Amino acid sequence: MNETDRNEIHDVVVVGGGAAGLSAALVLGRARLRTLVVDAGEPRNAPSSHMQGYLSRDGMAPAAFLARGREEIARYGVGLVRDRVTDVTGGEDFTVVLDAGGTVRARRLVVATGLRDELPQVPGVAERFGRDVLHCPFCHGWEVRDEPFGVLASSAMSVHQALMVSQWSKNVTFFLHRVAEEELSDQDLRRLAAAGVDVVPGEVAELVAEDDRLTGVRLADGSTHARSVLFVAPRPVPQTGLLERLGAELDETPFGAYPVVDPTGLTTVPGVWAAGNAIGFAEQVVHAASGGYRAASAIVGDLLMSRLDAAVNG
C-alpha cells in the first residue's frame, strides 16, 4: 500500500478478505466507491480442500475461490493489503490501525473477521481436521456418504449432530467421550435408536490412522472402534475484538457472542456493518457472500444519501 492509500480517506475499509469481505468489496468497487480490503489471510475453511453447496462453485478449492475473488475486485480498482487490523477508533470517520504500521481512514467499515474453530483436545483431531475429521455434513457429507461415521460428543447438544449425519450414513457411532449417558434425555435416546445410531460411553483417548487415513477411534480403556470418518463440534470463537472496541452491542448465544445487526448487517455502531461468520457461527460460504453483498449495497445508499443531505443542508 502506497502513501496515497494511507493518507487519503477511503469510502469503505473492509476488514477481512474471505467470502463476505470480498463480496462486499466487489459490490462497493462496482459502485465506484474508494474501497480497501485488509486481509490477514486466515480463512476459516483453509483446512478443507473443497467447498460445497455454492451454486456454480460446488467442489471448488477455497484457496482458488478466494484467488478468483481477489482478481475480480482488482478489476474495479479495489485495493487489497495483506495485514492485520490491530485497532480501530471512531469519530467523524474511522481510523484503522495496521499491524505492519501506519493507519488508514474510512467513512464506513465492513467487519468480516469471521471466527476461529477451537477443536476438541483429542490426539489426532487437529491433524486430520478438514480431511476425515469433519464438522459439517452439508459441507462434506456427500463426499463421505455411506462410510462408517463416528461422532465425538462435546456436550449433550452433540446428539443433534449425531442424528443429522445419519442422513448421509446408516453406520453411525456416537462416542459420548466426557458426556455422561444420564445427560441425554429419553427423547434423545429414542431418536438415536430410531436413527440406528450406536451410543458408546467412555472417554476417547486418540484417533487411529494408517497410511494417513483415519481407521479408528480408540477409547481410554484400550478398545478401538473402526471408523473412517469422525464428526466433531468445534467451539466457535467469534473474532469480535474490533467491534467490541467500537462499542457494538453483542448478543450472547450458546455458540458465542455475536454483534446485534439489522437485516443488512448494520451493527449498533453507526457506519459499521458486519458480515459472514462475524455475525454467526453457521454462515456458510454462500451465506457469507450474500451477507457481504447486502452490507455493501446498504453502504452505497447510506453514503449517497449522506452526501446529498449534506449538499441540501449546505
Structure characterization notes:
The protein has 314 residues and is α/β, with parallel strands linked by helices. The protein contains nine helices and 19 strands. It has helices spanning 3-7, 19-30, 62-74, 125-128, 137-140, 158-165, 186-194, 241-245, 285-313; strands at 10-15, 35-39, 79-82, 85-89, 94-98, 103-111, 115-118, 133-134, 149-152, 172-175, 198-200, 204-210, 213-219, 224-226, 229-231, 235-238, 250-253, 256-259, 272-274. The strands form five sheets. Strands 1, 2, 3, 4, 5, 6 and 19 form a seven-stranded mixed β-sheet that branches. It has a five-stranded parallel β-sheet with strand order 8-15-9-10-11. A hairpin with a 2-residue loop joins strand 17 and strand 18 (256-259). Helix 2 (19-30) runs parallel beside helix 3 and helix 2 (19-30) runs parallel beside helix 9. It starts with a helix and ends with a helix. The mean pLDDT is 95.
